[in-house]
Amino acid sequence: MKNVRNLVTALVLSCSAVAAIAGDVTVSEPWVRGTVAAQKATGAFMGLTAAKPMRLVGASSPAAPAVEVHEMSMENDVMKMRPVAGIDLPAGQMVALKPGGYHIMLMGLTAPLHAGASVPLTLSFEAADGTREEVQIEAPVRELAAPAMKMKHGAH
Ligand SMILES: [Cu+2]
After folding, report:
1. Cα separation of 59 and 67, whole Å?
2. How many structural domains compose the chain?
3. What is the DSSP letter of 137?
4. How far apart are the CA of 130 and the centre of ligand 1, in A?
5. Is 7 among the domain residues?
């Protein structure tokens, strides 16, 4: 009996380490791309799974004065990104925010972000009936691995 309880405790602990579950949305494996000196913007990425139809409508962070929900796409061989009003989350289906697609853009960074640090983020979700829900997460910083892509920022 005791062994079973220990196993359950271990499972609960290991789950809470990778996912923040609050209310109707589960955030899995959040991370932020590290930056180099003088770089003012970067992206935050994660998986979002909603228990019922929800919409990611915004985010904020103490690490950046401006935070927007962005979509990246290829236009004439150039990666472009633009702000979107929100990202729809169908019930029970993981939506990935990842490089090259949807991401959360942190702009106006006051200091470089290095691996080992983590960035607090508050995510705002809206349900079909208009009720809002906020989820707080800590996104670890991953070192900038690849050289910066050729990018154009449309709206900012
Ligand atoms: Cu962006």
Report:
1. 6
2. 1
3. E
4. 26
5. no
